[in-house]
Amino acid sequence: MLLFTAARRDHVERRIRPALDRGATVITDRFADSTRVYQGATRGNLRRMVDQLHDLMIGLEPDLTFVIDLDPALALSRSAARQSGEDRFEDMGLGFQTRLRDGFRQLAATRPRVHLIDGNGSADDVAARVLDALP
Known about the structure:
Blueprint: H1 2-21, H2 32-41, H3 47-57, E1 65-69, H4 72-82, H5 93-110, E2 114-118, H6 123-133
Parallel strand pairs: 1-2
């Protein structure tokens, strides 16, 4: 949890904050909400600690978050097909993936800026849904 927070802080300092200060729009893959779910919701009840660390060390929330929502079994099969070598979370199995999905869905239910996007279909289908969801 501390390493993820440190990495996110570094990313904010080096990339996100300078871009925001220039008036740029920032789009990033994985940020505060991923940490909340991956570290806080799936590994015991650490959510409060994750939120406290985030507030203390980062203090920046996204304006908008899209969560690509997909059946966990299908998500695992897609991940395996990519053969990216980045599979430590996938190696934790279907139960872990199900807890992740539940955590992201709960987050979307409690934070209006978090939008679930149907992850079924092609990459182009999903991208079109993201674009349609933009304000």
